[in-house]
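Suppose you are handed only these lines of text.
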Amino acid sequence: MNTIELIDRLEQDKSLQKEEWITLVESASEENREYAAHKARALADRYYGKEIYVRGLIEFTNYCKNDCYYCGIRCSNKKANRYRLSEEDILACCEEGDRLGFRTFVLQGGEDPYYTDDKIVDIVREIKRRYPEHAVTLSIGERERESYERFFAAGADRYLLRHETANDTHYRKLHPESMSLSHRKQCLRDLKEIGYQTGCGFMVGSPGQTAADLAEDFLFIHELHPEMIGIGPFIPHQDTPFANETQGTLEQTLYLLSLLRIMQPDVLLPATTALATIHPRGRELGILAGANVLMPNLSPVAVRAKYSLYDGKVCTGDEAAECRNCLERRVESVGYHTVVARGDNISILR
Ligand code: 5AD
Ligand code: FES
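From them, the structure of the protein bound to FE2/S2 (inorganic) cluster can be written out as follows.
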């Protein structure tokens, strides 16, 4: 079966065998990429029209107890300039976000034990008390199931936890012994069971990633069936063990975005900041390849540059309001418009 036929079958069956995924990933010619992007965009349009969802991202701590080899805020990076936002700071970001029209707040941070379960519960409760109609997304890494249950009871609606790679051997190349893929996968299953809208995801072109690893990512995602999938290119950070590794490519990221859209046409799929970092029109190209979510930064400008997961991150000097306008223009330049709706009721649109 040739690649075009495989893409057609993926659209029909929503699944492929591992060997077929490998073939698909390995045959990313320009013609195949265009074919996939065209199909992906048509599917996104069918499910979401010309609407792009916007989520306000609040990076509230860059302390992290983990030591992932790829990440700029890993605990061994003594050069990282650490910060934490107080509950008051976080609420001020929400206020600004609300004023700019955001209806989803994403609280993202390193795995920082300073924010105990009690603290997170307080923060989530207070945001939901002030903005009962808004969605709160947490992205604070691996915790106990019981903690996830408490956050959910406090009002958190969604949780993002990238699995990073679904292959054990590859996972070991990216993480120290203290972390495990099986625990991470368990967290994702717990989150789904508890009732969160759940997001997983991976980096494209991370060191040692093979087509077979990516095939396993697709199989894992197909089985998990998350509501959201976050992918972006791996970008080396100068103060990590991967400083001299090669960056993931624009072409492969766009191709994989398209394949994800075709596999799960109603999924919420962001064009990430990492994608915008490797190409000046990365987000627009992401949308044209099938993405339908943008996550601009709402963090205070004073801390932006410190949340440095990789080198060269864009939008670190811009006020939230500027980002909002800039995004609007970018989205309109490719024939779409941003919407502030929560975007989790698309069954009505179907
Ligand atoms: N390049 C690209 N993405 C990265 N992330 C962490 N470090 C890097 C990097 N060097 C991603 C991880 C993590 C998310 C918050 O950021 O996938 O889950
Ligand atoms: Fe941040 Fe353009 S989106 S400045």
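What can we learn from it? The chain has 14 helices and nine strands. The chain has a mean pLDDT of 96.
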